[in-house]
Design a protein that fits this description.
CATH architecture: Alpha-Beta Barrel
Number of strands: 7
Structural class: alpha/beta
Shape: globular
Order of helices and strands: EHEHHEHEHHEHEHEHHHH
Radius of gyration: 18 Å
CATH superfamily: Aldolase class I
Number of helices: 12
Number of domains: 1
Strand order of the largest sheet: 2-1-7-6-5-4-3
Helix content: 40-55%
């Protein structure tokens, strides 16, 4: 396990609750964020894929950070997603994140243009770092299934050399143990923080020197994830990992975001959690029944929301 990582431990890719008119419900988002921090999360990956960030406008994204902070969610616990398809908006959101007190920001690549060269990516991320300045730590978001832009080891080597101390880590949502291991083996020795985006890889990558995880399923399984993180090298941690992996399998058996919202709606007794922005759709009754049965079979009981 990598020690002294800024966001070391279990981080949830936080859901974004919405009202019936699909406007942001920041009261419920703050309550959920506090529940996460009280039930095993070390940090909060707000405004990521699970948070429907790419369905939100720039002002809405800034409103989320300001709204959560004003409702008592610590800015220091948040790693907001600030990467967009373009340079100027990415810089704007990242500088805003630092201005409200966030210590780190998670950056997707400029994902609209497919198959960019490593030289092109390097020029982009060099420019982001230069324009953002400040002291906020920058983290890359490797999610090639969605972005179609993977980050290779050679590219990362060049980026870190060109921007010493600025790019602090990566969330790897490739789902590949070998890919995450390559990041750890090449860069963790220098303090580079590698976060698994797949719960099933939390324990095996911690054993090799990763910093933890940032996962969607942590919205509901963070308590057991915390047990894995705390005891990754123990028998108790191995047993917890089996439950963690089972919950991951359950939540990805249906459309992920709507499934997680359904689980939170059930746990809170608040049906408004089903609200979701198109093109995503709420689960059908059959999907919901299947999800609940699969999740309950894992043997994990969620702490009730206040």
């Amino acid at each position: 396990m990598l020690k002294n990582a800024l966001f070391g431990g279990v981080n949830a890719a936080v859901l974004t609750p919405m009202n019936a008119d699909l406007s942001l419900d920041l009261d419920r988002m703050a309550a959920h964020s506090k529940w996460l921090l009280a039930n095993g999360c070390n940090g909060l990956g707000v405004l990521g894929t699970t948070g429907e960030a790419n369905s939100l406008g720039l002002q809405e994204r800034m409103d989320v950070l300001e709204g959560l902070i004003s409702r008592g969610v610590p800015a220091s616990k948040m790693m907001p997603g600030t990467g967009t398809t373009n340079l100027t908006d990415t810089v704007l959101l990242t500088k805003h994140a630092e201005s409200v007190g966030c210590r780190g920001a998670l950056l997707l690549p400029p994902f609209y243009y497919k198959n960019p060269s490593d030289d092109g990516l390097l020029a982009y991320f060099n420019e982001v770092a230069q324009r953002v300045g400040g002291s906020i730590a920058l983290y890359l978001y490797n999610f090639p299934q969605q972005s179609a832009v993977p980050f290779g080891v050679d590219f990362l080597s060049r980026l870190l050399k060109a921007n010493p101390g600025k790019y602090k880590g990566i969330k790897d949502s490739s789902g590949s143990y070998e890919n995450g291991l390559a990041y750890v083996e090449n860069f963790a020795k220098d303090g580079f923080e590698v976060y698994a985006g797949d719960d099933t890889l939390l324990k095996p990558l911690l054993e090799k020197g990763s910093a933890g995880c940032i996962t969607a399923a942590s919205n509901v399984n963070c308590a057991i994830g915390a047990q894995v993180y705390a005891g990754y090298d123990t028998a108790a941690g191995a047993a917890a990992h089996e439950i963690l992996a089972a919950t991951r399998k359950a939540v990805i058996s249906v459309p992920l975001i709507s499934g997680l919202k359904a689980l939170v709606a059930r746990n809170t007794g608040d049906a408004r959690w089903h609200n979701i922005r198109p093109p995503h759709l709420s689960l059908t009754a059959a999907q919901q029944a299947s999800l609940f049965a699969a999740f309950d079979a894992c043997g994990l009981t969620l702490a009730k929301a206040a």
